[in-house]
Amino acid sequence: SFSGFRPATLTVTNFFKQEAERLSDEDLFKFLADMRRPSSLLRRLRPVTAQLKIDISPAPENPHFCLSPELLHVKPYPDPRGRPTKEILEFPAREVYAPHTSYRNLLYVYPHCLNFSSRQGSVRNLTVRVQYMAGEDPSQALPVIFGKSSCSEFAREAFTPVVYHN
């Protein structure tokens, strides 16, 4: 029962840049364990000026303006202009098989080939821009992509990084 749960705020101000080829995860964990002690080892880490603030509080028993993981309205949805609450889709257990009875709001992109002949040096930073077009003109991108929580409700395009290995 969460009846005794009181709201809490978590603030994190210590962020460090980690370059995977220079610092292993094990080394990073050692540095973070010794963070309170003055040490010359911490000077090897480059701090990033940032602040992350998370407010945690109990959700109402029946929240309004809910959207399913498929972005369908969950009733009651009294006002279509209300700020939505998005439900999160769980990863299924490996041995649980269930049929999909509705469309999922997922898009998997698998490029058949990548042409890097016009690029000089190594190509590591790749991104994919996703747009739903009403025509061939670049200005005809439709605002049908569900935006991030810090943006408008629907966006005309979305960007995602690509993990690519030869």
TrEMBL record:
> What are the GO MF terms of this UniProt record?
guanyl-nucleotide exchange factor activity
Which residue numbers delimit the C2 DOCK-type domain? 104-166
Q: Name one GO biological process term.
A: small GTPase-mediated signal transduction
Pfam families per the record? DOCK-C2
One Gene Ontology CC term in the entry:
cytosol
Superkingdom of this protein's organism = Eukaryota
The transmembrane segments are: none
Classification via InterPro entries: C2_DOCK-type_domain, C2_domain_sf, DOCK
Q: Which family does it belong to?
A: Belongs to the DOCK family.
Q: What is this protein called?
A: Dedicator of cytokinesis 6
**Organism annotation:** Mustela putorius furo
